[in-house]
Amino acid sequence: MKALARITKVGWFHGTTNTTMDELVAKAVRLQGSFSHTWPMWERSLALLADGSMRIAPIISDDLSLSEWRQGYACSESKAAVKVVFRLEA
Fold this sequence. Notes:
There is one protein chain. By secondary structure, this protein is α/β, with parallel strands linked by helices. It has helices at residues 22-26, 39-50, 69-77, and strands at residues 5-10, 29-34, 60-65, 83-87. Strands 1-2 form a two-stranded parallel sheet. A two-stranded parallel sheet has the order 3-4. The protein is flat, with a radius of gyration of 17 Å. The termini are far apart. The mean pLDDT is 83.
């Protein structure tokens, strides 16, 4: 059965939860984790951004409102975009 939805959890939660996976299984949800950094890496990255050593503007392909999420995801999935930024509408 193909997954009906996908949830990607990014980062860690230090503690336990009183939850069950039963609903995810029943609804054919694909759950995956993504962890690619540590707190010191975030601090270093923010310092490099703050002092101008690292520029991220050249890799931002699209700067979209959150309501344009379908377009942003399509660009990412087709590999037409390197980095898509979503902004909350005011």
